[in-house]
Design a protein that fits this description.
This protein is of the alpha+beta class. Helix content is 27%, strand content 18%. It is built from seven helices and nine strands. The chain has a five-stranded mixed sheet. A four-stranded antiparallel sheet has the order 4-8-6-7, with no helix packed on it. β1 and β2 form a beta hairpin. α3 packs across α4. The longest helix has 15 residues. It is globular. The relative contact order is 0.15.
Length: 239
């Protein structure tokens, strides 16, 4: 289930979450508690065959610095943020350790969820933007820097609200396709220009739909998302 946090949080709370990525597990933990209190036990998860009533939350979180370049994935989408918040609250730490970990932005051991190497595609995005705007004049261009290992773990979901758009694959360092799925239709692959794949395109036809998912195939070379050190995917939404 996708939660519309922009509607559930007030403007101040949402601004804090956007500005301080380390606050995201706190938000996830708070929302999980709200849902847990609101849902009657007689319709609990365990009554429907699940192993636990515990609520888990994952995040697809991108951010852009000073509105320049691309939006960059910030958080490992495979991590259960509710569990990270529980571990933080239950940790036995001295006041000195707590202050130092906050000062140096250090997570508890084994609870890191913020990716390394954020912004490694920034220069590529800045250089490619003029070429894209020339190719698609009069359109809005939104660039996204990502990682194949993360994108194959949890797709990029978007509520497009019937707004016409095209999706352009720019860089995928191992030449994997981006898989574009609109509603419940079959995914359509697009390849970056460097792939040399004949018979395939680097951009979709015009898409009109409510729900759009962008994913990719898993690769045997993928490391866990949290262990990746650089971005290796760049794509654009053309609106």
């Amino acid at each position: 289930m996708t939660l519309p946090l922009h509607q559930m949080l007030d403007a101040r709370e949402f601004a804090v979450m956007e500005s301080f990525v380390r606050q995201v597990p706190k938000v996830a933990g708070g929302v999980a508690r709200m849902i847990d209190h609101a849902v009657p036990k007689e319709i609990s998860c365990m009554k429907h065959g699940y192993e636990s009533n515990s609520i888990g939350m994952k995040s697809i979180y991108y951010s852009k610095l000073n509105d320049i370049g691309a939006y960059h994935r910030m958080i490992d989408p495979s991590v259960n943020l509710v569990e990270i918040e529980k571990e933080r609250k239950n940790a036995q730490r001295s006041i000195t350790t707590t202050i130092l970990q906050s000062l140096f932005d250090s997570p508890l051991s084994g609870t890191e969820f913020v990716l390394s190497g954020i912004g490694s595609m920034r220069k590529h995005a800045i250089l490619l933007r003029p070429e894209i705007e020339k190719r698609f004049p009069g359109n809005e261009v939104h660039l996204f820097a990502d990682r194949g290992a993360c994108l194959s773990s949890l797709p990029f979901f978007m509520e497009a609200m019937q707004r016409p758009m095209r999706i352009l694959s720019l860089i995928f360092t191992d030449d994997r396709p981006l898989l574009i799925q609109v509603e419940n239709n079959d995914p359509v692959p697009i390849y970056p220009p460097t792939s040399g794949k004949s018979g395939y395109h680097d951009v979709t036809d015009v898409i009109i739909g409510n729900q759009i998912a962008i994913s990719t195939q898993k690769s045997t070379k993928d490391t866990p998302c949290i262990e990746t050190q650089t971005e290796d995917v760049l794509f654009a939404l053309i609106m």
